[in-house]
């Protein structure tokens, strides 16, 4: 049973006039949380990596391998810009998307942005379940993730809302996030911490 009442969900739907975009590190839980928010609010969900793969006709790892990271980032920028034209919807981005300044600018200015943050052990465990993330393939994943955290957290901090994702019940995280979204939208879209 959901702890978030229909009134909160109804308010969010009424006040939301822009895409909800999830940012954050690999393995933090952007896609999982994004899907749940989309389902709860009755909005379409898209993962930008899936769109890039579909447009390119190959997987992210193969794009990195054959064409390099900057080619991928350019495709990512175009795909995300296109997704942001859809009005109220939910988009999960790849962990490095906001490190491209134009992509970041579009997300910060046109969307309700949510940073999904997780502890290092959670990210290590979750990213270890798949081996298709090119940035983690050459070296110790924990060390690489640690370096990316240093570089990226100051950028992720610009998101409108931050939500901590852990291995506890998904429902509790979802409810906490919906409450934060409600507060943000009812507060005239000002960050409240
Ligand atoms: C990347 C994260 C990946 C994917 C690509 C690069 C990154 O997405 O876009 O492998 O730079 O952090 P997820 O964050 O969904 O794993």
How does this model look, in words?
There is one protein chain. With 193 residues, the protein is of the alpha/beta class. It starts with 5 loop residues before the first helix and ends in a 7-residue tail after the last helix. It has helices spanning 6-15, 30-41, 48-56, 60-67, 69-83, 101-110, 120-127, 141-156, 170-186; strands at residues 20-23, 45-47, 90-92, 112-117, 161-164. 54% of the residues lie in helices and 10% in strands. Helix 7 (120-127) crosses helix 8 (141-156). The protein has one domain (6-186): Rossmann fold, CATH 3.40.50. A five-stranded parallel sheet has the order 2-3-1-4-5. The protein is globular and about 50 Å long.
Summarize the structure.
The chain is α/β, with parallel strands linked by helices and 193 residues long.
Strand and helix layout:
Elements: H1 6-15, E1 20-23, H2 30-41, E2 45-47, H3 48-56, H4 60-67, H5 69-83, E3 90-92, H6 101-110, E4 112-117, H7 120-127, H8 141-156, E5 161-164, H9 170-186
Parallel strand pairs: 1-3, 1-4, 2-3, 4-5
Helix pairs in contact: 1-9, 3-5, 4-5, 5-6, 7-8
Bound molecules: shikimate-3-phosphate (S3P).
Shikimate-3-phosphate is lined by residues 26, 49, 60, 94-96, 133-135.
